[in-house]
Specification:
alpha/beta, Immunoglobulin-like, 4 helices, 42% helix, binds copper (II) ion
Length: 194
């Protein structure tokens, strides 16, 4: 059996050698060495093919990063466009719409500072005045007082001394304002400017 296999293999080798080179049947060792060389040469083109593909892949990857760079360059342009769209000049407009002062006029409302038991008080505690007019204050009590704004809206009178000291406070902005005496904070009142 082994002799038959050897003969068959030799015959096949001789046939292959004759087909490839036709150099004839030199030896069995030459046949065995020629077959691995053929596989090595056949493997070489397969290895060369992936190397070409690998070289082409980086080229494709180099082309793909470029659009990403272009996309990254676009956002800065839009960011710079945003500040121009948000015009900060629109915000000063509400400040320009601040209430305008009423023109001064000669209308006047009287307010007295009076003794009230052991304490002091405004009289009346609720009053109205025409916008641009004044409140004429008379201190009829026995202690100094003032008419001061509780939350803005007008300028305070300053201290008005007894007996019978007077002061004028002008109201140039419409609204309702609280007032009080800073010397006697329990003295309070409300004035409507219309
Ligand atoms: Cu007072």
């Amino acid at each position: 059996m082994s002799d038959r296999r050897l003969s068959l293999s030799l015959a096949l080798c001789v046939i292959t050698l004759a087909a490839c080179s036709g150099s004839g049947s030199s030896s069995v060792g030459a046949q065995d060495s020629s077959s691995p060389v053929a596989t090595a040469t056949s493997a070489a083109p397969t290895s060369a093919a992936p190397s070409v593909i690998a070289s082409t892949h980086p080229a494709v990857r180099k082309s793909t990063p470029q659009p990403t760079h272009a996309a990254s360059s676009q956002p800065p342009a839009t960011v710079t466009a945003h500040p121009t769209v948000t015009t900060t000049t629109a915000r000063p407009k509400p400040t320009s719409t601040a209430p305008t002062a009423c023109p001064n006029n000669t209308s006047s409302t009287s307010l007295a500072m009076v003794n009230s038991g052991t304490e002091y008080a405004f009289s009346p505690t609720s009053l109205t005045v025409t916008c641009g007019g004044t409140v004429h204050i008379t201190n009829s009590s026995t202690a100094p007082h003032n008419m001061s704004p509780s939350n803005g809206g007008f300028a305070g009178s300053g201290d008005v001394n007894p007996p019978n000291g007077t002061a004028n406070v002008r109201f140039s902005y419409r609204g309702t304002y609280g007032f009080y005496c800073s010397i006697h904070p329990y003295m309070t009142g409300t004035i409507k400017v219309s």
